[in-house]
Write a structure and sequence with these properties.
- It contains eleven helices and no strands.
- The protein is mostly helical and 256 residues long.
- The protein has a single domain, classed as Up-down Bundle (Heme Oxygenase, Chain A).
- The termini are far apart.
């Protein structure tokens, strides 16, 4: 695989050490992860109405249902049996297997609890256009970028446990329409995300073999942060500023 960036000439030739490489990735989260977004702060701080929380949950479903598709796309490119076996559990985590429900079903428990019609949620008819574009850009990125870069794009999971803990505590404390039964998705991710992130981080440390590849991996984490940030930008524009596009979910209307 070749890596071609307009500013390749400005990238130092000396590779980062393993610790420096990890620090560069973590610095992206410190700067860009979506826990810093105003909509996120409103959600966790109890500043949203139930209808605004509904809008967040049904739009986020688009992302949840895209995750196993992007993981399947990545696996379709992998010739290493060990890597495929390791990555396969990510699909199972979201889709479930046999009697074990997955993350998508747990997300639908949340939208059920918020009073949204399940068929309406799964149809994604009410999702914001920007949400759909953002999540499909992520699937396409993982399908098309070099494999080590595609793996690196998953590393926002390094920062996820903190946001899940905040979400569980903040939403349970601040919303009377939220209870423990609808928060199971986030509770499960407290153990799943660190396991996945540890594997992916070790993989890119071993397989990003020069400085250009390392910088491409860091940039992949920036891209993924942008995907998550763009979704919250769209929600804020539509449901806080009031600019809801045609066809999107409208609070107070019957959506079924």
């Amino acid at each position: 695989m070749s890596y071609s960036y307009p500013d390749d000439a400005s990238i130092p030739s000396e590779p980062l050490s393993r610790d420096e490489f990890e620090a560069a990735i973590r610095a992206v989260g410190a700067e860009r992860y979506h826990d810093k977004h105003p909509f996120h702060k409103m959600l966790h701080g109890g500043e949203l109405s139930k209808e605004q929380v509904q809008a967040w949950a049904l739009n986020r479903y688009c992302y949840q249902t895209a995750v196993p598709r992007k993981d399947a796309a990545l696996m379709s490119r992998v010739h290493d049996n060990d890597l495929r076996r390791e990555w396969m559990h990510r699909v199972v985590d979201h889709d479930g297997l046999d009697r074990e429900t997955g993350g998508i079903e747990r997300w639908l428990v949340l939208t059920d609890g918020l009073g949204l019609d399940r068929n309406y949620v799964t149809s994604m008819r009410g999702a914001l256009p920007a949400t759909r574009f953002a999540v499909e850009a992520y699937v396409r990125y993982v399908r098309e970028e070099p494999l080590v870069v595609a793996v690196a794009s998953s590393l926002t999971e390094l920062f996820a446990p903190k946001i899940h803990k905040e979400r569980i505590a903040g939403m349970l404390e601040n919303y009377e329409f939220i209870d423990e039964s609808v928060m199971t998705y986030f509770k499960r991710r407290l153990t799943q995300a660190p396991r996945d992130a540890d594997f992916a981080l070790e993989y890119i440390k071993q397989n990003a073999r020069n400085r250009i590849e390392q910088e491409a991996c860091v940039d992949a984490v920036r891209f993924k942060c942008n995907v998550l940030w763009a979704q919250l930008d769209a929600l804020h524009h539509a449901y806080v500023c009031g600019h809801i596009p045609p066809g999107a979910f409208r609070p107070g209307e019957m959506n079924g």
